[in-house]
Design goal:
Length: 250
């Protein structure tokens, strides 16, 4: 990691973050990263590396046992999720977190913007045109790709400064994955910095400017996506590079 001049150098700064579950071994240990903006960043690693734990801790869903988190230079360590949301952090979890009995329209209408100019329903439908024809459908009736579009759209409705995307295209058909990739790549131009948790370098290079490599709860380093070596990332994460797409949705 390069030397950091102070917490104001990044939209997000995480310093020496440690997170443990129920007093057990740390799921994250001494993780430090900083995210300049505007950009798309990825944290990559094999299952169990700690990617979801990192995102959930930044979003206030988990409490760290040590370390510090800064958002735009302001300490937010240990803030609950609602306070983190008001500060501009939005978590887009994997699609199974949707309420399956609610329609697309009900999901989008239930979100109250937390800060600044609201992202309207029309704004997010412009980003995800397939949802327009599905407004009266329940989440349970959507394809995997449509569910992930809806998850991301709900997160954007909160008008975030920082979007945390947890495995945003894993297991999706190529058309849906490409739609989500296009949206994530476009968000920095709209003032949103993105941190996406992804399994390997192949898919991360399609989305991110910077790759942060996480293994066994520790950050091993980072590299520019444009110059990332698949061999290096495979050796560090013990995962095979690839595009991350499913052959077809289940």
């Amino acid at each position: 990691m390069p030397r950091l001049d102070g917490p104001t150098s990044s939209v997000l700064l995480v310093r020496d973050l440690t997170v443990s579950y129920a007093g057990g071994a740390p799921a994250l240990h001494g993780v430090t990263l900083h995210l300049p903006s505007p950009a798309v960043h990825a944290v990559i690693g094999s299952p169990g590396a700690g990617k979801t734990t990192l995102l959930r801790t930044i979003a206030g869903h988990l409490q760290p046992t040590a370390g510090a988190i800064y958002l735009d230079g302001r300490p937010v360590t240990g803030w609950p999720s609602d306070a983190a949301a008001r500060a501009g952090v939005a978590l887009a979890p994997q699609r199974h977190r949707l309420t399956q009995s609610l329609t697309v329209a009900e999901h989008l209408a239930s979100i109250r913007p937390q800060r600044g100019r609201a992202w309207t329903v029309e704004d997010v439908l412009e980003l995800f045109p397939p949802l327009t024809a599905r407004m009266s459908h329940r989440a349970a009736q959507l394809s995997n790709g449509e569910q992930q579009m809806l998850t991301t759209a709900c997160a954007l409705r909160t008008a975030p400064r920082l979007l945390l995307a947890d495995e945003p295209i894993e297991g999706l058909a190529p058309t849906a994955a490409d739609q989500i990739i296009t949206v994530l790549r476009d968000l920095p131009a709209r003032g949103v910095t993105v941190l996406a948790a992804l399994p390997h370098a192949g898919v991360a290079a399609k989305i991110a400017d910077t790759l942060h490599v996480l293994a066994a709860g520790q950050l091993l380093g980072y590299t520019r996506a444009a110059t990332a070596s698949h061999a290096l990332c495979r050796r560090l994460t013990l995962t095979e590079p690839g595009d991350g797409y499913a052959e077809r949705e289940q």
